[in-house]
Amino acid sequence: MSGPSRQPAQTSSSPQDTLYEARKKLYVRTVSGVFANWRWVMVWLTQLVFYGLPWLSWNDRQAVLFHLAERKFYLFGWVFWPQDVFFLAVLLIISAYALFFFTAIAGRLWCGYACPQTVYTEIFMWIEQKIEGDHIRRQKLDQAEMSAPKALRRGGKFLVWGLFSLWTGFTFVAYFSPLEELLRSIPVFGFGPWELFWILFYAAFTYLFAGVMREQVCTYMCPYARFQAVMFDPDTLVITYDEERGEPRGARRKGIDPKAVGKGDCIDCGICVQVCPTGIDIRNGLQYECIGCAACIDACDQVMDRMNYPRGLIRYSTENAVKKHWGRKEIAAHVFRPRTLIYGVILALLCVAFVWGLAVRDPLRVDIIRDRASLGREIEGGLIENVYRFQVMNMTEAPRTFHLEVSGLPGARIGSGERVEVAPAATGALTVQVLVPYDAGQPGANPVAFRITAEDDPGLSLEERTTFLIPR
């Protein structure tokens, strides 16, 4: 069997003159198997969500829309305002603890199966394979002189990559600008300047990262590769080469007992390197470039099947399990250890608190600002007047009419501004005049309370406290 398919990079500089290793282009071999199937399941799942959500409708609007111009985030039945940034903070904390939890259990699951870099590289490689052929044909095509068939294949690949990248950029912008407006802009190319910028920007980086740079993004740019070591411990499940079983490696005919020829189970075919999207040799031990995609496991298992050897020469295991020859029960018992249990409990509590916060989230909010041009003045009839400015946020998806009442001082009443109509998921402004008899309170600040209630739903009510100023 042939070794890893790579083409030496052309460089005129000696290794001493460079700050990093010159790139050697990888011709990644296609592999099938259990983990390859799981990667494609995640590709389909993540991309159906990403490309499909902008097309869903909810209450005659886009179901998921982070409308920056309106400063509102629509997420199915919820409408989030800038005041809801707390939920975003909690969601980021949940994401961080989920990363800690799953990494402590089974290493770089995110990188291997759900990271956009992995997902889009998988898609771009599939397109490349369909147009240019398998890894051997792609290598030969690179080495061949330019010709019409080569130009046609290369041009077709670049064209499909470009169209896919533009559609990806368009979909990304559709999360922040209404999809219907974007679709109407396509025939006349009437995109706004920022819309056009972000479509092209996101498309260009999708093309660059997934089509051109690929493993270099994981090797040089991704910070997770650098700090993953502090999240692993000897009981973390990682992709492991069983050196005790595999060494010494070497070629032999099918059906030969490796012990009879003084060798281990590894036949040194190099297929585990050929299928690796970052081009590493897992037999050299765990390396920070390994993204945990498990392609080498699928490849090695197929080789072991052909050689009539047991599977698992390369497998998910832990450092302690390899050293102490643990079975699955011992591995499972150590995977769920105090560290992962603490992460899991914290993660569960955060998720419960997040869901509870959404469930009890008040659909009505009111901001009260005193009119500073008229803090408190005496008018005819021995009354004191204070003026307030109300911002009423209707966070429901139905138009509401709200009624306002005031309490806290004897004889307090609203002179004007008792009702306000607010559109669905909108804000209504209201100027309220409050009148109080002069002798109803002490000179200075006196506590009062405003209650605002939806006329069609008395249960939708909110009380806000402020002060009423009586001149001395």
From TrEMBL:
InterPro entries: 4Fe4S_Fe-S-bd (IPR017896), 4Fe4S_Fe_S_CS (IPR017900), Cyt_c_oxidase_cbb3_FixG (IPR014116), Electron_Trans/Redox (IPR051684), FixG_C (IPR032879), Ig-like_fold (IPR013783). One of its GO terms (molecular function) is 4 iron, 4 sulfur cluster binding. Keywords: 4Fe-4S, Electron transport, Iron, Iron-sulfur, Metal-binding, Transport. One of its GO terms (cellular component) is plasma membrane. NCBIfam families: ccoG_rdxA_fixG (TIGR02745). This is Cytochrome c oxidase biogenesis protein CcoG. It comes from Thauera chlorobenzoica.
